[in-house]
Amino acid sequence: MKKYMKVIIVYILALGMLFCSCKKILSPADENNRGLSDIYNDAAFAEGLLLNGYVRLPLGSYSFNDVATDDAVSNNPNNNFRLMATGNWSSINNPMDQYTGSFAAIQYLNTILNEADKVNWATSGQYTKEMFNDRVKGEAYGLRALFMYYLLQAHGGWSIDNKLLGVPILTLPLDSKSDFKLPRNTFEECVQQIYKDLDRAESYLPLDFVNIAATSDIPAKYAGKTTVADYNRVFGAYNAQRLTARIVKGVRAKLSLLAASPAFSQGTTVTWTKAADDAAAVLDGIGGISGMAANGVYWYASRNSGEINGLAAGLNPKEVLWRGNVGDGNNLEKDNYPPTLYGNGRVNPTQNLVDAFPMANGYPVTDPAGGYDPNNPYNNRDPRLALYIVVNGSKMGPGGAVIYTRIGTSNDGLNAISTSTRTGFYLRKLLREDVNLNPASTNTQRHYVPYIRYTELFLAYAEAANEAWGPDGKGTHPYSARDIIAAIRKRAGITQPDSYLLSITSKEDLRKLIHNERRLELCFEGSRFWDLRRWKENLTEAAKGVSINNNVYTVSSIENRQYADYMYYGPLPYNDVLKENLLQNKGW
């Protein structure tokens, strides 16, 4: 999508004149301002409506909402997630809000869906106008479904009269004559609308945007109507990273997992079986377990720099289903390197998360069979601990400097200065350690943000399959929940055979392990907060840290989590509840 960004900016400026507010969509145009009718003979201007949906996706950077959970704290006292977790979350102050942005995007998408058939998308080429129209509508339906997913995730909840509600369903553009006081639809109605949009998107879009080489490769719906050149003009590789049918399948899998989860299952008809089947529909497309990326544990890291630096022309690495643009920078490192590496040490992993990493033989640190030594707590641990978290004595950065977090060492020590760790740990995951922040030799490196990783979908399948069929059930698929977790833990470097995994016989025990594996594999990627809520697991576990003084390790709580039970479901914005007379979620 990089090639479209300059165009998008122009469109947004122009469309900002066209769409000045939700309640006043078509204001009388000034002399030189373009109106909606201008899109019919200006395909580029029309496409700006669609591209507005892409621009508004909340995926361009990491949120680090882990700071609102038991996985991390921030040394920034003004961090919104820190304030949220410590008692300042309300319908007026909601860092998790998706309401305004998502509905703004949906308004643009509804407009292009309403008008697309009238647009002259192409003036040359065989059947190109019709194919462009199909592609645009497919993307718009898929994006609308995705924004509705974000709305359900952030704002779905139980009302005071014990109904599981979603948000108002809007499928037509609003104008000055529209009814703006629509009630909230039920959660189930919203889910079914999303499925409907995803099905429509999939019917219009190719599995992937790739160039075809022969007439025989033209899909049946266009066979005999167009040429190879014209097909590639519309559906070719230059569109890579825009929404495809494969990505749509991934969104469907995420929705089904959400809807089948304990927090929502009593208000929907979505089953764990459907959630497993939907995840498998994506995984089967890459060969199942055999398609699992070997570097999925360290896809972001300096050791994987060859792959990252080589990404071009919208190509995806094996681990990634959908991603953002590749760009040079060092902001992640500036924010999260320790002070001695010229960073601000913002995101501090907790002792809680460190304790979640098992021993190298796969046993939890609480199990005597693991061999955990409290006097050498980081020895013989799951290799992912060293990959994701900087502990006392870790080497980090371009020169492999030793980072000491114990008390009385350097500015990296516990609470030494305002940018030091509050927990005894620093973030390593997501950072390129070939970034140098020394003012005398600062550099940048290439980064990208994955929107959907295949590991997330493998874990979704494992969770749903275990709930549907138990540890070893497979439904109609060639792999079980245990098979998936075994492959993930083997890839992570857990000693094989994995005796701990083999010892698990019950759905309940495997559920605990799957939840923990998801916690580890997806840490700092914005999943933990949503997972705890959809599982209805403990939100109030205090964030813990470790103080190391004269080689004595003392674990203590450093930040309480102040959540009430009703906070498993987020609020609707206070102002929208008042203006639109919406029924608020219980407790807010």
Short description:
It is found in: Cell outer membrane. The protein has helices at 5-18, 43-55, 80-88, 99-115, 128-155, 187-204, 228-235, 245-260, 272-283, 305-310, 331-336, 351-356, 383-388, 454-469, 481-492, 499-503, 507-521, 528-535, 574-580, and strands at 72-74, 157-158, 164-165, 320-323, 327-329, 347-349, 389-390, 394-396, 401-403, 426-427, 445-447, 450-453, 543-549, 552-559. The protein is mainly alpha-helical and 588 residues long.
What are the main properties of this structure?
single chain; 588 residues; mainly alpha; Serine Threonine Protein Phosphatase 5, Tetratricopeptide repeat; two-stranded antiparallel ribbon; two-stranded antiparallel sheet; globular; disordered N terminus; TPR-like_helical_dom_sf; SusD_RagB_dom; signal
